[in-house]
Amino acid sequence: MYRYRQIIKAGILALCLLLAFAVKSAALLHEERSKPPEFYAAFEETPETSDDPDATGEAETAPKADSFQPPEILREIKELREIYQNPEIVGFLEVEGTRIKYPVVRHRDNDFYLTRDLRGADARGGSIFMDYENRLDTLDQNTVIYGHNMKDGSMFHDLRKYKDPAFFEKHRSVRLTTPYARTVWEVAAFMNTPIDLNYIQVYFPEGEGFAALLAEIKRRAAYDTGVTLSPEDRILNLSTCTGSPAEGGKRYVLCARLVSEE
Questions:
Q1: For residue 115, how far is the Cα from the chain centroid?
Q2: Torsions phi, psi for 254 (to 5 deg)
């Protein structure tokens, strides 16, 4: 009987020890789970570093090329684009002593604005537009701008006034604002010329052919303005049809040379 009681006591003691161990383990597990992630970060292994850039096994970063920052578009052009909701507006043209005071547009061809206004809507009188080959970031050797010769006196109708040398003497200045520059030009010649003259060529590789064009403009000029054109000049040609059926495919062309740019 005594031995049986001893066995019962030993079993109870063992059961108590087992329960105590279980309770302690549960408490430790709860404590471990409640610790923040930062606690464990302190024990993470930190990789060794080296002064040798090749020791990391990572490829060297290529040097960054200087990024091109285009110049700021002039306020006048921004405002015109906003007014007409047309990003193809590239300038504003003024010819002294005339009604020629118009925004200038440019498309990917020279046909679109022949019959469309500044908003892109159909219009018989079209718009004043720059040759599609002309660049905007810089002035080419020859900048060409076109416009209709309208009977109501609009667009490039007033170019005909330069047929009179007396008008030229009093009105020698042309102003053209581009997206990046305000430019002033001096009238150098006025022509009533057939279209066999390629005065609309805008780019001359290494200057080839430019001197010949200038010489031909001087030869075909309606009168001598006294203004000399040289291969170092940049020129502006304003072109319109004569509006006379008798003159067929002739064009009025007002040629000016760049005198200032800002």
A1: 25
A2: -105, 120
Percent above pLDDT 70 for the chain: 73
Same domain for 207 and 101? yes
Residues 130 and 35 in one domain: no
This prediction has a pTM of 0.74
CA distances from 28 to 19, 38, 40, 42 (A): 14, 19, 16, 20
- How much is the pLDDT for 207? 77
Location of structure tokens 């709860």: 30
The verdict on whether 241 is a catalytic residue reads yes
Place of tokens 């500044």: 118
Helix, strand, coil content of the chain in percent (nearest 5): 30, 25, 45
- The single residue of 241, 242, 250, 259 carrying the catalytic annotation is 241
Domain count, the chain: 2
Neighbouring C-alpha atoms within 13 Å toward the C-beta of 214: 21
Q: DSSP assignment of 106-132, as one string? A: --SSSSGGGSB-TTS-B-TT---EE-T
* Cβ partners under 8 Å of residue 184, min gap 6: 173, 174, 175, 258, 259, 260, 261
Residues 33 and 121 in one domain: no
**Domain range holding 21?**
2-42
Interval 138-182: pLDDT, tens: 999 999 999 999 999 999 999 999 999 999 999 999 999 999 999
Torsion, Cα 189 190 195 198, to 10 degrees, reads 20
Q: Please indicate, yes or no, if residue 53 is contained in any of the structural domains.
A: no
Residue 134's domain is classified under what CATH number?
2.40.260.10
